[in-house]
Amino acid sequence: LFAAVEMAPRDPILGLNEQFNADTNPAKVNLGVGVYTDANGKLPLLACVKAAEAQLVEAARARGYLPIDGIAAYDKAVQALVFGEGSPLLAEGRVATVQAIGGTGGLKLGADFLKKLNPTAKVLISDPSWENHRALFTNAGFTVDTYPYYDADKQGVNFDGMLAALNSAAAGTVVVLHACCHNPTGYDILPAQWEQVIAAVKARGLVAFLDMAYQGFGDGIQEDGAVIGQFVAAGIDFFVSTSFSKSFSLYGERVGGLSVVCASKDETARVLSQLKITIRTNYSNPPTHGAQIVATVLTTPALRAQWEEELAGMRNRIKKMRGAFVEQLKAAGVTRDFSFITTQRGMFSYSGLTKPQMERLRNEFGVYGVDSGRICVAALNEHNIGYVTQSIAKVI
Ligand code: PLP
Ligand code: TYF
């Protein structure tokens, strides 16, 4: 039966993790996978999460099936976070939100629904993008192409190229956009540039799919979510996937969501009914634990305040590491200007290091990043940053 089955390639990033775990170098540092670790290099368990979990254990409840679209209070909290508490859109009942298995699950639900809606549409992702975007939309049956994004010479975004690609895309094309903290480059576009993207989406009749996996990791919860308000103000229908993997440090609980902005309450009800079919025919209904934690934190004022503080702590620590990284590279004798690293946002930096340099870092120094030159700055700390910058100095 399986004689002709070919070996599938490993996920380039998760595969690095396996290699890192097998490495016996005591000085090894993992800057590969996008996971935030604290000042001591540990994956944090947020205090707000611990407190919410204690509450949930205290009031231990039986585990019935959840509704197909998830915990109602959770979906509502996701909407308030993404669209803003007082958004008229919510009052008008124009957003269909479902609980999803992580941000990935939100993307996949949206992809499956879009495939039914418009089977011949093409999908455009940024060049480069999170590798799973291509795989996920391809697997959902779409032809996936790219729009220009990273400009290596400029150390920034090739915005003219991006806009030109959108302005020549066929009507109905699905455009996957990173709402903030672009993975892998760390370069985001500015609000005025978003306006131009929105104008192109509107003029060409494109379908915007915003992937928001890092809300709160860039400049703040509101600041990072502002782009959503820009899309809403433009009066277009669009998709947003949400992930709480990073912002709650709940990677393994798989907590996310999908929100679809519709033109009317009636449309929303019909869209929701279709999303529910997609869920039902894939995994029936979502799991309880992670979403219960997130809903509890988001809707309990004291826990909410604690979360915002802890999230700010993660965000500010990353920013501090970006600054320290630039300084320590200089101190290690690197003359190339790395100050662009402080203009990048979120967990990642496209460092500009080449594949051979990344390989040397890995093989000679046990410093693991992605071959593209992407490093996870959220895994730098005061204990490993000296070693990392000195190693980089040696391979440059
Ligand atoms: N989208 C982007 C851009 C990501 O970087 C990630 C990272 O994990 C995801 C989606 C997936 O998030 P999750 O782990 O919640 O599925
Ligand atoms: O880009 C990253 O490192 C994170 C984690 O298939 C990740 O988004 C990487 C690969 C993958 C799933 C998650």
Automatic annotation (TrEMBL):
Keywords annotated in UniProt: Aminotransferase, Pyridoxal phosphate, Transferase
Source species, domain of life: Bacteria
Keyword Nuclease among UniProt keywords: no
InterPro entries, sorted: Aminotransferase_I/II_large, Asp_trans, NHTrfase_class1_PyrdxlP-BS, PyrdxlP-dep_Trfase, PyrdxlP-dep_Trfase_major, PyrdxlP-dep_Trfase_small
Keyword Transferase: yes
GO molecular function: transaminase activity
Cofactor(s) listed in the protein's UniProt record: pyridoxal 5'-phosphate
Record-listed E.C. numbers: 2.6.1.-
Pfam families: Aminotran_1_2
Annotated ranges, domain Aminotransferase class I/classII large: 28-392
Family: Belongs to the class-I pyridoxal-phosphate-dependent aminotransferase family.
PANTHER family referenced in this protein's UniProt entry, alphabetically: AROMATIC-AMINO-ACID AMINOTRANSFERASE, ASPARTATE AMINOTRANSFERASE
Quaternary structure annotation from Swiss-Prot or TrEMBL: Homodimer.
Protein name per Swiss-Prot or TrEMBL: Aminotransferase
Organism from which the protein derives: Ideonella azotifigens
